[in-house]
Amino acid sequence: MKSIVTDDCCSHKVFLFQSYHRQGKLEAAMHRVASAGNTSNSTRPRKEKRLTYVLNDADDTKHCAGINCLAILNSATPNGCDHLFTGSRDGTLKRWALSDNDATCSATFESHVDWVNDAVLAGNNLVSCSSDTTLKIWNPLSDGVCCRTLRQHSDYVTCLAAAEKNSNIVASGGLGAEVFIWDIDAALLPLAKTVDPKEEELPNGNLGLPLSSLRGLNTGNNMSFHNNQSRGYSPIVAKGHKESVYALAMNDSGTLLVSGGTEKVIRVWDPRTGSKNLKLRGHTDNIRALLLDSTGRFCLSGSSDSMIRLWDLGQQRCVHSYAVHTDSVWALASNSTFTHVYSGGRDLSLYLTDLSTRESLLLYTKEHPILQMALQDDSIWVATTDSSVHRLPAEGCNPQKVFERGGSFLAGNLSFTRARASLEGSAPVPVYKEPSFTIPGIPGIVQYEILNNRRHVLTKDTSGSVKLWEITRGVVIEDYGKVSFDEKKEELFEMVSIPAWFAMDTRLGSLSIHLDTPQCFSAEMYAVDLNIAGAPEDLKINLAQETLRGLLVHWVAKRRQRSGSQASSNGNIASSNDGTRNLPHSKIEVDDGAENNTIIVLPSFEFSTDSPPSIVTEGSHGGPWRKKITDLDGTEDEKDLPWWCMDCVLNARLPPRENTKCSFHLQACEGSSVQILTQGKLSAPRILRINKVINYVTEKMVLDKPMDGGSSDGASGLGLSTGQSQLSSLGDVSLRPGMKPWQKMKPSIEILCNNQVLSPEMSLATVRTYIWKKPEDLVLNYRLVPK
């Protein structure tokens, strides 16, 4: 097969972008660590770690997905400020400073890499759990510092429970049929240093600590690492569940724990030992919410069977059933004396029920299911699947006052009674038409379409607004408002073919872009198409490489600063292998002086510092983490970032790639008198434009004809080896000074495929995808332009 070497040599040109295309000189170790469980010393490559970046909205003080949990921190002083904590499906928690008619976001807690499902206050700590299978402990009044990450669950962690008067005890449950009871004080203790004599003199500068013992000892860093024993501490296991756990509750003293889930039974435990006390049966569907009174005698449960049940744990039986809702009950909250219960769920409604008289009142109904509630004085905060949080009057100190408004009904004791009443048109009228105060969120993205240029993404959010994003800069470049998504998608269609170099989802309510090696390095574009001033016409830009440079430019700068400061304090030059100092057998060897080069970020890949994206990845020890790119402090190394990302950014090294070439046949049109000498197949980069093929045909046509003082051998005239066709020196010949005689004789040529004349701006990949549409090698035809 012949090779048309057209653009590859351009990356070696010396020009003003040389610094960011400089190749590293030292070799990276090519061995791969064997996969877990592989004991045969196999060198089969394992799947490399993924790098994800999440695009954040310009207003980072608001949630962009549903609110799963709420927690209230009351002020310790009379004139102090109460705080509300919200945990969202966008993967973050936020702290709100509350006043009478205002709520100000005073901190964002960012470290979870998936939905935050629950959060509780335990003494001086805020504990959260997530679908990323971890619990995280935070200083609630800090600026977002994660003190510790606890990893014990095998699946999503769905719920937490805390003991109000025993503030160091927290229980967690999840989809893995697991319930753990944690001693938070013990979990926060520093890990004891267990030094192996053979590891006392390690070349990693860690004072003899084995690598497996280094788990985020610096609590001043948002990034936290963990192993399966959560820093040497193991929680108490409450064994007994066979299916998913969705709800937990604990009494104030921490001596009683109840749990429920898809088994439809309530299990009662002693959290001090993890032993089972009893099981309560009565619900006919999943148990989704649980409450215990302060003494632990009475328990309230809410279920997907639409019923609320009151249990007497001393008598081990259900003493009352309340048919209040018409659909699943997902949230419960009670007043301090446990005489009234507020309930909400899938039927979009918030009810207040007197547990003794069975009198119920519809307080509020809206368009979103209710996920959780939290009482604050005489108000109640309501979290829904929307990104906003609402506050309603609740008369929490004296709920009976609300019933004086009238409109109450008597809750039945069978689930069909409320459904029948609703069908008969006797549904109650809500007491409150609107909330008294709302903390607004940002509409989450629910639909997207990746455009053919593989840089732009069209999105639609929950409000119906359609926007166009440029993912290599992380910004909205066009806001179309509330228009038809499908019509706008058709309007923006481009006949262009670029390989899919990233995956995407909107699970967090925003765009999450996933990069996997080597697939992410498959897409290239010409610099001129990116409007890069001063770039050679044939310069190719790898989209993933430049995106990684843009994402990690702050990390590189801080890394260089730390390296320089260490060199100054030590009185010598910092090691060039600083980035892998903690890995004696690192895959990466940083090129000498490579980190001293300034990384130039092209304009098309500059991410905003006002709303910087967040990086999500998994550390070498199994610890997922998330951080804004501007918060990376330069200490992150191969334990933290995927090695292939560091190799790309620090050494400008890309992995071997496949399918970067396109094979094709070049033939004269049928009946054409124009013929050029081509034998066999030609090969060229997929992004090669048809105008280069036109120039190639033109050159061959002219040079194959004898000219005065010229050679009749076209290949020799170009200084090419016999049988090798090259177009690397051809561009738009009309633009170049000092044209040779053959160039002035340029005939007008056009290229066809399937009898369709091709635009000179089309790439070979585009022609193959949209015109050729066959698995066989592409066939191009040429002819003189008809006059």
UniProtKB/TrEMBL annotation:
Q: Could you tell me the keywords of this UniProt record?
A: Repeat, WD repeat
GO MF entries? ubiquitin binding
Region ranges (Disordered): 563-588
Biological processes, Gene Ontology terms: double-strand break repair via homologous recombination
Comp. bias (Polar residues): 563-580
Matching Pfam families, A to Z?
Answer: DUF3337, WD40
Q: Which family does it belong to?
A: Belongs to the WD repeat WDR48 family.
Annotated protein name in UniProt: Anaphase-promoting complex subunit 4 WD40 domain-containing protein
